[in-house]
Specification:
single chain, about 725 residues, 28 helices
C-alpha cells in the first residue's frame, strides 16, 4: 500500500508509520498530540456542512500477533477508501487516532478532536481493536496498557465513545464498532440513548452498527473482506446512482458476501436505529456514485439524463471517448441556430425523419453547444471553431432540454417546469397534476422577462404522447405562435415577455414521393399531422433527405479516423455511406467496426461484410455478436443480455440481480453461473456501443441505444442467419 494508495488503489489521506498513509494526531517527541496535520482543525464552531470520519483503531498490542495487526490495518484501509468516495461535496475529512496505549490517551484524543462538541452534516466513528464483555454486561475496548484485573480504570467503556459521537452537535451520526462481543453494548446503549435530548433524537439521524453479537468473537480479517466485496458491488452491479446509501442498501450489500452459516457471527447488527432504514443517509457515501461531469451546465443539468445529450451531439460510440464526430447538416443547424439565437422570441420547429436518421443528434448539438459551461470545454471549442459561425446557437439559447422517451406526461411537465426554475406544486386530491404543473409553466412564461427555448426529443417514444400534446404542448401554443401573421412582421411583433421557442423531435418514415421512401404508417402520419394542426405556423424539417449522404460519409470517415491513413478512411467511408444512408445509426455501427480494421477499405469492399451492411442494423449487430466471442463473452450469452435489455421496457434494466435473471430466461436450459463477469465484459467490449444508460428509481439502467436495435433484438432471429466474417 505504498505511495499513499489504499486497499483499492484509491488516494487515502491518512498516514500510518510504515503503511504509507498520513494521519492526523501523531505523537510529538514530547508525548503531546500534534494537531497541525494536513486536515486542519474544526472545533465547536465548525462548518455546518462538514463531514468527518474518525477512526479509532488499536492495531498493535505488543503481543506479537502480526495477523491481528494486519487485519486491523486492512480494516482502516477499506474504511478510508469507502469514505474517500469522490464526487461528494464537501468530502469527508478523515482523522485517525494516533497509536493509543492507555485510557487517558483515548480520552485526550476525544477531547482534542472535539468529538463531543463536533458540528457538521455528518460524523462517522469507526472503532476497532480487541473487545471484552465483562460480567457486569459492560463492553470494554481493550488497550495495550489495559489490566484485565483493573478493567474499569485501564480499559475504555465502549458505550462512552459511542455516546460522545451520538450526543455531539452533528446532524447525522453513524458509529461502527468492530470488536469481539460488540453486541454487548445493545443494553447499555438502550438505557443511555434516552438521556440524549428528545429534540436531538427527533431531529437527527443517529445509528450504531456492530459487527457481531454479544457472545461472538470477530475474525479480524473477515470484516474488511466483506466490506471490500460490498465496495466492489456498489461500484459495479448495484448501479445505485444517489450520492448516499440508505442503511438498508449498506447492510444488504455487506451481507451479500455472507454464507448462510456465517450470518449469525458476521452480519451487521443495528443496535441504535434512530433514522429511516430506507432513506439516503449522509453518513453513508455511495462508492458507485458518479457525479455529472462539470462540463454539464444549466441546459444539460436540467434534463436529469446523465450524458444523453453529449452522446448524441458528439456521435461518439463509447462513454469514454472524448472526440467530436458530428459532421455536416449545416443548413439544418443554421435553421435551428437562427430560431434559437435570432431576434424572434417565438416559433416552433418540428424535426422529423426516419429511424436512426440523426434527429436526436441535431437537437443534442444545439443543446450542448448552447450550454455555457460546456462551451468552455476543449472538445466544444474545437467543434465550434470548425463549424460555420451561423450554425452555432448562442450561449444559454436553450433554456431546458427534455427527453420524452418512455416518460409520462407528468414527468415531462415536471422536467419543463423545473428547467424553467419552478417548483412543482402539490396538486389537490381531485386535480390533474399535469394540468396544475402546466398552469405553473404558463405563469412563468407570462411573467418571464425574456423568452425561453424548450427542446423536446423523442415524442414518438413517450408513454403518453396524446396527453403530452393535449395537456402540455397545446397550452404552450399561446406563447409559441407568432403574434402577427403578416409577410413581414414589425420588428417588435415577436418580442416581449412570454415568448417561447419550441423544438420537437419526432420520428416519421420518408414520404412516398421520396425515391426509395415508404409511406407513413397511420400512427406516424397521425402524430406529425397532429403536431402541425396544433402549431399551424410550425416549420417542418427532415433529417433524411438526399443531402445527408455526404454527411454520413464524413461521419464514417471521422469515426474510422485515428490511426488510419486519412485517404483510406475516406475511401472506406465512400463505399459504406450509400448503403448506410439514411441511417446515421447504421453508419455509426459500421464506422465502429471499420476503425478496428488494419485494412478498412478491404473490409468495406468485402462481399460478406457488404451483405451484412445491406442488412442494416440487424446485419451489423449480428457480426459483432459473433466476434465478441473473441473477447471471452460467448455469443449466445451476449445475445441474451442484449435481448433482456430490449425486453426490459421503461428506461432500461438494472444490473444487480435483475439483468442476470432476465438474461437467463433467454438461455433456456444452459445455465450461466458468472453473469456479473459476462455483463462486465459486455459493458467494456465491442458491444458497449449498442447500449445506452439512464437512471430510474435511483438505479443505473441499461437499454439498446436506439429503437431499431430494440426491434432487432426483440425479433429474436439475429443469430438464425449464416455466420459472418
Amino acid at each position: 500500500m505504498g505511495g499513499g494508495r489504499g486497499y483499492f488503489g484509491c488516494r487515502v489521506p491518512l498516514r500510518r508509520e510504515g503503511h504509507g498513509c498520513e494521519i492526523r494526531g501523531m505523537r510529538s517527541p514530547g508525548g503531546e498530540v500534534d494537531r497541525s496535520g494536513a486536515f486542519g482543525t474544526v472545533g465547536e464552531d465548525g462548518d455546518a456542512s462538514q463531514r468527518t470520519l474518525f477512526v479509532l483503531a488499536v492495531a498493535d498490542y505488543g503481543d506479537g500477533d502480526e495477523d491481528f495487526t494486519k487485519g486491523v490495518n486492512e480494516q482502516v484501509d477499506v474504511v478510508s477508501a469507502w469514505w474517500s468516495t469522490s464526487g461528494l461535496e464537501p468530502a469527508f475529512r478523515q482523522v485517525r487516532a494516533p497509536e493509543l496505549m492507555t485510557r487517558d490517551e483515548v480520552e485526550d484524543f476525544v477531547r482534542a478532536e472535539n468529538i463531543r462538541t463536533m458540528r457538521g452534516d455528518a460524523l462517522v466513528l469507526f472503532i476497532t481493536g480487541h473487545g471484552m464483555a465483562a460480567s457486569s454486561k459492560t463492553h470494554y475496548l481493550v488497550l495495550p496498557a489495559s489490566d484485565k484485573n483493573r478493567k474499569i480504570n485501564t480499559s475504555v467503556r465502549t458505550v462512552d465513545l459511542v455516546a460522545a459521537a451520538l450526543d455531539s452537535h452533528a446532524d447525522n451520526v453513524l458509529v461502527i464498532v468492530n470488536t469481539c462481543y460488540a453486541g454487548q453494548i445493545r443494553g447499555e446503549l438502550a438505557d443511555m440513548f434516552h438521556d440524549i435530548s428528545k429534540t436531538r433524537r427527533g431531529r437527527c439521524k443517529l445509528d450504531v452498527l456492530v459487527t457481531c453479537d454479544h457472545d461472538s468473537p470477530v475474525r479480524v480479517r473477515r470484516f474488511p473482506t466483506l466490506l471490500k466485496a460490498a465496495f466492489h458491488r456498489l461500484r459495479t452491479t448495484a448501479g445505485i446512482t444517489r450520492p448516499h446509501l440508505s442503511m438498508s442498501e449498506f447492510m444488504t450489500e455487506f451481507e451479500k458476501g455472507l454464507r448462510p452459516e456465517e450470518r449469525r457471527h458476521h452480519q451487521l447488527h443495528r443496535v441504535i436505529d434512530n433514522s429511516s432504514f430506507t432513506e439516503p443517509n449522509p453518513c453513508l457515501p455511495n462508492p458507485g456514485y458518479r457525479p455529472v461531469p462539470e462540463i454539464f451546465g444549466s441546459g444539460l443539468a436540467n434534463t436529469g439524463i446523465d450524458g444523453y445529450w453529449l452522446d448524441r451531439a458528439t456521435g461518439r460510440t463509447q462513454d469514454n471517448d472524448s472526440g467530436w464526430y458530428f459532421k455536416g447538416r449545416d443548413d439544418l443547424n443554421r435553421t435551428i441556430a437562427s430560431l434559437l439565437s435570432g431576434p424572434q422570441s417565438r416559433g416552433v420547429l418540428l424535426l422529423t425523419g426516419s429511424a436512426g436518421s440523426g434527429k436526436s443528434a441535431v437537437l443534442a448539438r444545439a443543446v450542448v453547444l448552447s450550454d455555457p459551461v460546456f462551451r468552455e470545454a476543449p472538445v466544444c471549442k474545437a467543434a465550434m471553431e470548425q463549424a460555420p459561425e451561423d450554425t452555432v446557437p448562442g450561449a444559454e439559447s436553450v433554456t431546458v432540454a427534455v427527453l420524452a422517451r418512455r416518460r409520462s406526461a407528468a414527468q415531462v411537465a415536471t422536467d419543463i417546469l423545473t428547467g424553467l426554475g419552478g417548483t412543482a406544486q402539490t396538486p389537490g386530491a381531485s386535480d390533474d397534476p399535469v394540468v396544475v404543473w402546466v398552469a405553473q409553466i404558463c405563469e412563468i412564461l407570462r411573467t418571464r422577462g425574456e423568452g425561453a427555448a424548450v427542446v423536446l426529443d423523442g415524442l414518438d417514444e413517450c408513454d403518453e404522447r396524446q396527453d403530452i400534446i393535449d395537456k402540455i404542448l397545446t397550452p404552450l401554443k399561446e406563447f409559441s405562435e407568432p403574434l402577427y401573421r403578416v409577410p413581414q412582421p414589425r420588428a417588435d411583433a415577436e418580442t416581449g415577455p412570454g415568448g417561447l421557442r419550441l423544438l420537437i423531435g419526432v420520428r416519421s418514415s420518408r414520404p412516398a414521393s421520396d425515391p426509395g421512401g415508404v409511406r407513413l404508417d397511420k400512427q406516424e402520419r397521425g402524430l406529425v399531422e397532429i403536431l402541425k394542426e396544433t402549431f399551424p405556423s410550425a416549420r417542418v424539417e427532415r433529417t433524411d433527405d438526399e443531402g445527408t449522404k455526404t454527411d454520413i460519409e464524413h461521419y464514417i470517415a471521422a469515426l474510422i479516423g485515428n490511426g488510419v491513413n486519412p485517404g483510406a478512411a475516406a475511401e472506406a467511408a465512400a463505399v459504406v455511406a450509400p448503403e448506410a444512408w439514411p441511417s446515421f445509426l447504421d453508419a455509426r455501427i459500421a464506422g465502429e467496426q471499420l476503425k478496428g480494421e488494419s485494412d478498412p477499405v478491404g473490409r468495406a469492399k468485402d462481399p460478406q461484410w457488404q451483405k451484412l451492411l445491406k442488412g442494416g442494423t440487424t446485419g451489423l449487430l449480428r457480426r459483432d455478436l459473433l466476434l465478441v466471442a473473441d473477447e471471452g463473452l460467448p455469443t449466445d450469452v451476449a445475445h441474451a443480455l442484449l435481448r433482456a435489455s430490449a425486453f426490459a421496457g421503461g428506461l432500461g434494466v438494472p444490473w444487480a440481480n435483475i439483468w442476470p435473471r432476465m438474461a437467463q430466461v433467454f438461455m433456456g436450459r444452459t445455465q450461466v453461473d458468472n453473469w456479473d463477469e459476462m455483463i462486465a465484459k459486455l459493458l467494456s467490449g465491442r458491444l458497449n456501443g449498442y447500449l445506452t444508460h439512464d437512471h430510474q428509481d435511483d438505479r443505473r439502467v441499461y437499454r439498446p441505444a436506439h429503437d431499431k436495435l430494440s426491434e432487432a433484438l426483440i425479433d429474436g432471429r439475429l443469430l438464425d442467419s449464416e455466420d459472418a466474417a
